[in-house]
Amino acid sequence: MMVGSYFSANWYRVAGLRPRLRRHVVVHRHVVRGDVWHVLQDDQTGGFFRITPAAYRFLAGLDGRHTVAEVWESVARRVGDDHLSQDDVIVFLGQLHRSDMLIGQDLPDLGELFDRSRSNAKRTVMSRVKNPLALRLPLFDPDKFLNRITPAFAWLLTPLGMALWLLLVGYGVVLAALNWPGLTHNIYDRVISLDTLLFFIVLYPLMKAVHELAHGVAVKAWGGQVHEMGIMFLVFMPVPYVDASAASGFRRRRRRAVVAGIGIMVELMLAALAMIVWAMAEPGLVRATAFNVMLIGGASTLLFNGNPLLRFDGYYVLCDALDIPNLGTRSNKYLFYLVQRYGFGKRDGDNPATARGERKWFVLYGVLSFCYRVFIMIMISLFVATKFFFIGVILACLSVTLTVLWPLWKGWRYVFHSRQLGQRQGRAKLVTLTLLGLVGLGLFAVPVLDATVSHGVVWTPTQGRLVASNSGFVDQVHAANGEQVDAGEPVITLRDPQLDARIATLEAEEREYRSQYNRLNLRDPGQARILAEQLERTSQSLAFWKGRQARNQVMAPQPGAVAMAGGESLPGKLVAEGTLLGYVFSDAPRLLEVLVPQDRINDIRYDTLEVSLRFPGALHQQLPGRILGVTPRAVDVLPSGVLSTEGGGPVFLDPEAEQPRPLNNYYVVRIGVEEPQGVWRAEERALVRFRHSPTPLGIQALRAIREVFLSQFDV
């Protein structure tokens, strides 16, 4: 017997209706996390509608002859309390009607059918306009074409085909690992070059065409229908697409996952084949093409198609892997349910989590996907704005409006103008205003830590250099790294075997000439004078080469701490004349040259409260510093190559410049360290932190947005 909540005051509106499903609606039975669900598929519109077992029991009785009231009472007698309430039935029938799956007569109303098609077309157009970064334009029905090619490729969906795919991709991964230095050499310059852009424009649509045809073949191989293929403008780039939504009706979860992921698998296969070609080909057009195929197949898969946080292939694979259909929409509904239940106190809301384990996935996916969509939207808008400023700004405004502002406006109307909250509306208003006030205070009234972290390099003074005055082998290192020495104290001793042999020869000649001179000086004065001239020349040559030998001692040019350039590998090393062997740093202050981006230089100049630094090899040790000076304009050449990406630093270089010039504008800030500790190495990179006055997060965010516009668009 039904009581209370099972009845509805609006029941009379639907009780006498005799609806039934339209003839082109197909019912599929799915098992989700152990629960039986049914999926309604409209072959005409391509729409799908998932219903619970209780809703299916009610729907099964709608045959066009019995009224809604008769069917509801019949189900209630059979199953007891486990059935839909009258309010649930009204909502369910309304949803089916909006999905155009119900009809009230045996023969369809052609006028209604026409209006329904036109209404569906309008909704489809609006859904595409609401996503300006991925506009779709249907072109033709590919069903017949797919029927012809599917038999030739269907075997790839068998276990044998999957095994071959794994072998091929695995071999490509191994090749990539073995050739990793060659693949990644100067990778940034190669990616942003004009040649790469031209390759991308040509190859990306072709690879996407193969990708989308793979979706269609997979659907056809397992009995589905594909009736739409067209062009999707992905960030204004025309790429093909195929409507493979018929896979939602497949009963087997593995097949749905394969259809969703087959495009990713094809792109990875193409990337693996390209890797094999790249490894075998000589530098030239073929190798460049293979490299760009790998770049497109890998980067686009990781960032877009294979990323489950976006509504592309990876999302549908994740839904089937977790066995949670419609994960994105249900995640949003669950977050809204949590707000209603725990924020507004509405206990009778519909909980989208119907199976065990779904709640944690709804919260995690709902938050992460929203943040990632906003991030991608902003990055794409900025990219477009750098090329087409006006279009980029319009695109950014439209995207922000649809993604952020419109949902916020809908939430505001729900809280302050909707009657669905009933008696809870007062609490909802109070909670909403309180939350907005706290967020506003947190963003714009509560100061938090504000700091700039930049990379710097140990400055090496010219007067402190240890330079080899001769060529030779390093024989001895008299002072270790960090050891204190006095000015003029020997630090390194070189040895030149050829020089030593020459000096020994000259010494022997000198002794011989002197002995002969002493013997002939009284007996033959004329011959003695000749020997005296030879002896003088030999003595002069010997003095010259001994002077050169004395320069094998590399002395400390000033008192301070030694920093060897070669470290422990220096002894025994052959060095050429003029080779830099190390430095002697004066006791205090030690100096660093720090690169600061243009958008942060004013904060460094006018609002720096404290400077501290850490070396990567000793992050536990923090050293205090102070600003000694700032360059008046942006630098044209890096202070050291270790600050560039090629040297392990963060600064990208201009690929067109002959000298190591930063791609963006940087200023050099000179930092002095009064109390140096530990071992300082020549041209060692350091992390330098400039602490500024505490500033609210909202003001920091607005400043960051302004800095982005200044750096990217000069506005």
TrEMBL record:
Family matches, as InterPro entries: MBTPS2 (IPR001193), PQQD (IPR008792), PqqD_sf (IPR041881)
Keyword annotations of the record: Membrane, Transmembrane, Transmembrane helix
Entry's transmembrane regions: 152-180, 192-210, 230-250, 257-279, 285-304, 362-382, 388-409, 430-449
Gene Ontology CC entries for this record: cytoplasm; membrane
Residue ranges that the Swiss-Prot or TrEMBL entry lists as coiled coil: none
A Pfam family recorded for this sequence: PqqD
GO molecular function term, any single one: metalloendopeptidase activity
GO biological process: membrane protein intracellular domain proteolysis
Protein name: Peptidase M50
Taxonomic lineage from the root: Bacteria, Pseudomonadati, Pseudomonadota, Gammaproteobacteria, Oceanospirillales
